[in-house]
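Give me the fold.
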Amino acid sequence: MNAIIITIGDEILMGQILDTNSQYIARRLTEIGVEVTEELSIPDKREEIYETVDYAMQEADLIFVTGGLGPTKDDVTKKVLAEYFGSRLVFNPQAMEWLEELLRNRNLPMNENNKSQAFLPDNCRLLRNFKGTASGMWFERGWKSLISMPGVPFEMEHLMDMYVVPELKAKYSHLQLEYRMLKVYDVAESQLAHHLEMWEDALPDGLKLAYLPSPGMVKLRVTAKGEGIKQLEERYESLKEVLAGMRYTEGDDALEKQMGKVLRKKGMTIATAESCTGGEIARLITSVPGSSEYFKGTVVAYANDVKIRVLGVAAEDIEKEGAVSEKVVLQMAEGVRKLMQANYAVSTSGVAGPDGGTPEKPVGTVWIGIATPKRTFARKFVFSFTRERNIAKAAAKALELLMLEVENVEK
């Protein structure tokens, strides 16, 4: 079973927004054993949409289309799909009821543009959108299906999770795919691949290893299909044996989510004091729903006087050692832990770049401090020459060091 994903929108091709829809759809399809063979982005033009849909219908079993379902004149997807599937746009009373209920709950007036969204193809099945005004549409031709969804990510995700994935799982129950994921820290992808070469070469049919590098870590995904599922657990356990001595964590959850589970279970709290990372660590932590239970807050102490006045860093240490130093991040971590009355704290100070480096402290130099109920310590790292990667790597490493302390403490 294969699929093609089509995203529609000039804003995607112009680089004004990131196409996260294809990523989400592909991930959800992979989870149920559907192989995505192509991802296509096209403009809001009738000819482009028609020709691309026609191509996809010839090449794939499942076609997913996002975008172009809004109430404005440039949203033409609905009209083109109606034309392609030989249907007419007709007034749908049920869709109008959904629209009226949604707008009423949001205290919004109904206008002519909204009303136009109740005119839908007469030969598709509607998917009720509880998050927005555009209904999803499910077309079928023979054994093939085309599912059209809004381009707004949270609306598309809602339709995928509520309708599309459950129905596909029920309809194609013979598709089987399972995977296991772990994350290896502080090992380059090439080095890790060399280390696992013999293990990977010995994998039987139906099992596959994928390397997914990201700042500070490499994710390893072991995927099993068909007969390979029977050997998945055994091979996964043998992989962990081969990785003995390396730092890794299991599971697909992001580190900030894993840490949140541990903190919530142990009733512990954390705080951050950030200079070079500019609040990125706090952003990652608060991206997890429910993080208010354990995250006290952050101080983005970019200026030295803030480090001194708010976090209690000694001015003479900054003058003598520099802001990017062990003494400074230790005091930052201790200061924010005390200020926020948290159990744990993490601090960062570094040279993110592209300027500001010296022979002693080149671009990419970052000090990370950790303060716990039992000890305070700091580690020095030298990352890359790229500002964005330095910030991302420093934030990832800070979470990793903090996670180690949180995991090992006894409440």
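The chain has a mean pLDDT of 94.
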